[in-house]
Amino acid sequence: MAERLQKVMAQAGVASRRASEDLITQGRVTVNGQVVRTLGTKVEPHDHIEVDGAPLEGRERLVYYLLNKPREVVTTVNDDKDRLTVMDIVADVKERIYPVGRLDYDTTGALLMTNDGELANQLMHPRFQMEKVYVAKVKGIPSNDELKTLRQGVTVHTIVNHRHETFHAAPAKAEIIGADKQKQTAIVRLTIHEGRYHQVKEMLKAVGHPVLKLTRERYGILDLTSLAPGEYRPLRREEVQALKQGKTFRKSAGRL
């Protein structure tokens, strides 16, 4: 049965479907000796596929890991600045896993890693609204009105790749869970369902409270219980099933 090339690559553990699409458009994939750049190209089981000159192996055993990402670690497969990456931390895993989404260099917390390209693509799709919970230490102590702004959805003005961008963040759950009046800092828990570049930092900055430290304490139903920074564990079967069945997805943000 013919399947899309990027889907076959993702199932083989090469990369996520989105990253596989990038490999295709860059001309790094051949099918039966011919470079393929067209997304959506369908291949048959008997077709010979190579990525960067290496034959596509049979589908790997699908594995799923939760990593507590430490600070000063890059959430990429490779880094041109030779910084430590999440791949260095999980080097003992035999399968070719990769991170689902990203956490900033200085952000810690829950990061899912897998070679299941289908699931990765599903989890990152905006329409599934995966719930992500962050805890931030911020400058100043947010007022009730500022928390209300976050809960109603705040407009963010930011710079991405040297270009000014404006977006309206969806309503978030926001609460203060600690405050130091003497130092004028607070600990804020923020629950969002989007995944824009630096989103949590930009949302808090937009209401006047720059982030000093940030961690993602939960991704869907996956939390950091028993995981110290730099540690990782395989997901339990019921956790994988819950992710695949969409039990951790919110169909709409609803009232907060």
Structural notes for this entry:
The chain is an alpha+beta fold and 256 residues long. The chain has three domains: 3-55, RNA-binding S4 domain (Structural Genomics Hypothetical 15.5 Kd Protein In mrcA-pckA Intergenic Region, Chain A, Roll); 64-102 and 109-127 and 225-244, 2-Layer Sandwich (Alpha-Beta Plaits), CATH 3.30.70.580; 132-219, Alpha-Beta Plaits (2-Layer Sandwich), CATH 3.30.70. It contains seven helices and 17 strands. Helix 1 packs across helix 2 (17-25). The longest helix has 9 residues, at 17-25. The model is unreliable at 250-256 (pLDDT under 50). Its EC number is 5.4.99.-. This is Pseudouridine synthase. Keywords: Isomerase, RNA-binding. One of its GO terms (molecular function) is rRNA pseudouridine synthase activity.
Instruction: Kindly name the structural category.
Output: alpha+beta
C-alpha termini separation: 46 Å
Helix fraction, binned, reads: 10-25%
Largest sheet: 9 strands, mixed
Mean pLDDT reading: 90
Tell the overall outline.
elongated
Task: Write down the CATH class of the largest domain.
Answer: Alpha Beta
Task: Please provide the ordered H/E string of secondary-structure elements.
Answer: EHHEEEEEEHEEHEHEEEEHEEEH
- Stretches where pLDDT is under 50 for at least 5 consecutive residues are 250-256
Q: Into how many domains do the coordinates divide?
A: 3
Please tally the β strands and state the result. Answer: 17
Content of β-strand: 25-35%
Tell me the CATH architecture of the largest domain.
2-Layer Sandwich
Output the number of helix runs. Answer: 7
In angstroms, what is the radius of gyration? 20 Å
CATH superfamily of the largest domain: Alpha-L RNA-binding motif
CATH topology of the largest domain: Alpha-Beta Plaits
